[in-house]
Amino acid sequence: MSFARSFQPTLRLxxxxxxxxxxxxxxxxxxVSNAAVGKSYIDGTVNDPIVFPAPNKSHGSxxxxxxxxxxAALVPLVAATAVTSVNPILDGVLSVALVVHSHIGFDAIFVxxxxxRKFPVLGNLTIWLLRLATGGVLVGVYQFNTNDIGLTELIKxxxxxxxxxxxxx
Length: 169
Fold this sequence. Notes:
Elements: H1 3-28, H2 34-37, H3 61-83, H4 88-113, H5 120-147, H6 151-160
Helix pairs in contact: 3-4, 4-5
């Protein structure tokens, strides 16, 4: 008798016992209604049509175009502030553009990874913390540009700064 012949009855026995065990386990499970478990995430059936949200100009192509225009506008703004002397108007425009560009980037990260639909508390919390931080940074940038040296002068001073002399002991 070969090994394959002696192994076949064992396979049939194992497959039958596994299959019958699964069937009896499914039959023995109590029926649970959707109302007892709670509302599911999906309303209706898979054959129901999708309900699309109402069109909004702050989403979609207008939003994408605004982001790309702001990103493209940063290139000549940085070049203009580097070439010209210190100009408070360019400082203000560059500072606000950088803050808004950063806000849009962080907002995209939070919407992608902490969507309020999936994380109702943490998603909304991070969006509001980002808005609060952006407002605080805008106030700080305004104060720095009006009451201090400004962004362009700060960058020029940092660029020309020489290292501190070594202190001998």
